[in-house]
Each structure stands twice: as structure tokens, then as C-alpha cells.
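B., you asked whether I could sanity-check this one before it goes into the benchmark set. Here's the sequence:
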Amino acid sequence: MSKWEKVKLGDICEIERGGSPRPIDNYITENDDGVNWIKIGDTSEDNMFITETKQKILPEGMKKSRYVQPGDFLLTNSMSFGRPYILKIDGCIHDGWLVLRDKNNYFHKEYLYYALSSKSTYNRFKLLAVGGVVNNLNSKIVKEVEVSLPPLEVQKQVAQNLDTVSELLALRKKQLEELDGLIKSVFYDIFGDPVTNDKGWDVQSVSSLCSNIFGGGTPSKSKPEYYIGDIPWVTPKDMKDLRIRDSIDHINGDAIRNSSTKLIPKGSILMVIRSGILKRTLPVAINEIEVTINQDMKAFVLTNKVISEYLLYTFKSLESTILNRVRSVTADNIEFNLIKELEVPVPPIEMQNQFINTVTKIEEQKSLVKQSIEETQQLFDSLMSQYFD
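And here's what the prediction gave me:
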């Protein structure tokens, strides 16, 4: 592979920047003869293709934009810059995109996608990108970046190998989603809908179900010695799973003694109450070890009236209701008194235990799938490194 020919993208592909008719709102249309208006929001992290758009623009807007066709490559040139996509539709692109056209078909399309997605290519983009807080790519930079150009048959084999592993990874992730869906289904079967409380359970406020509710805090960043320790300090960036077993950042006892953060008992419910992510989802989790949290979070220490897994899935079932109370000031945040006063159904503890027994079995299956996902991801990363680094 080290013998594969290296070529500059600019020597093989036409590379141009998109453009936007302004003001864009004057060109947006719902007419059938409208032209697809391709935005970054039309992409999916799990899909290499762009297949549809949410908006169209008037045909006269094409003169002030860049027209692209199926088979062209799009590359984000700011914010999450350097992400490639293959078009399956035609349309126009704004100046947040670069288009790459391999008119002479030097590349197998999926091979080029993986080459552009590789860490080595991204690192090259990052090294050359211009800008301050936000990195930006331009056509001149992208033209100078080199990629490997093996024979076409080899490209097809490389793409096929990576496709196979990628499809397996997608299958495993789908299995994980289905198991999560199964837990939600079991919850509704046993307890009904917590919004309507159609099974008529006793109703209590969240605060009455808690022996304590902790806020969080940030130890002084001017004291780096506070961040040398083994106590997990959980922030919204750690809240990607329903169970917290560790965190990215750690602190020590001095940090706790000299800040407003507190040690949270294991088995509590952690909730993000201030974050831009609240526009999309409500991150909640059970901490399986003692942790501390920052000021963007709250921790619910429960009484014996309720089991943590039950309240966790109740919060997730009430997600839409809670997020409707999100208000935007300088950041998105939940009016926390409304959470404390939120009334939730409280079924008998025996039924909660029945639910937990089922959840435990499903969680065991989830652990196996997660392990398989990690192994498959490692295989994919290894192949990408083997082919492109």
C-alpha cells in the first residue's frame, strides 16, 4: 500500500465552492419546479449519501449559487469541516460546501469517500485550514491535499472491505436501538403512559421522591492541582449513555472541599438542565459509582419509594413534556423548580422490581452488543489506518 501512487486532489478533481443567493429567504419555495437546496442539515453522520433536502429554491436562484449533480462529492468547509458526502440528487449548494468532481472517473466513489474520511486526510485538512475559533477550508487548500490512487480494481476491493465492516457496524447499532426500544415497550406494558397515567397509579412530585437534590459546581480552573485525582467529575459531555461508570475529567478531595460540587451517591439520577443539547433530547443517567457534577446538571438522590431505573425511564417517557418547558436565554436551560414540582405516577415497588428484573436481562444483551460494536469499530479503524495512513 505504501507503493500506491499519491495524487493531489486538485490534479484529479474539479474543486469549487458553493454560493448562496441573498437574501436566501426570498428564494425559498415550495413549488414543484423548485431546485433542491442542499444544506448540512440534510446529512446524516451514519450515511455517506445525500438523498433528499428539506428545502428548495427558485430556479432563478441557481445563477447565484453552485449547481451540483448526482455523483459529485460535497465537503463541508467550516464548523464540522472536512466531512465528505456523495450526492444522489442534484441541486444547489451554499458557501458552506465545496464540490469535488471526478470527471474522468479516476476514483471508485466509495473508495474516495473513505479516503476523504480517513484520519490522515482530516489531519491534513486541519493543518492547512485557516481561521481562528472556526476552521475553514477553501478550494485552494483541498486541491493541495494528497490521497492514494491505487488501480481501480484495488479501490473497489478496498471499498468493498470497508463497506462490509461498516454494514456490520450499522447492524450492531440497530440491534442496540431495538433493545432500547424493547425496554421502553416493557415500561409502557407494565406502567402505562406516565403522561396520562392511564393505569391510575398514585401520583407524587419528583421532590417528594428524593431524599436530596444536588446541584453541581466547577472547581477553580486556576488550580490545576484540583484536576489531578480519581473522582469522576461529570459534565453534559459525559451524558451519552443511560449509565455513568466514569467521566472524561476527574478531580480530587481538595477540589470538592473548595467548590460547590458535591459527592453524589451511586444509584442517583443525573440530569442535564443547561445545555444546547436540550433542543433535541433530555440527557438523564444513573451513576453506578460515586461522582461529582458541574453546574449544568442536577442529581436526584432517591428515597425507598422509587427505584432509580423506574424514575429514569419515567423521565425519558416524559421527555417531550419536560423539554416543552425549556426556555432560551443565553443558553438553553430547564426551569428546575418545574422539574421538582413535576408529578409522576408511582406504582407499587413490587411492580417496579418486576420491571428492573426485565431491564437487567435486556441490559445483559445490550452489553454483549456494545462489546461487539467496540470490536467491529476497532476492526474498521484498523482497516482505515492500514489503507490510508
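One thing to flag: The longest strand covers residues 210-215. Otherwise nothing jumped out at me.
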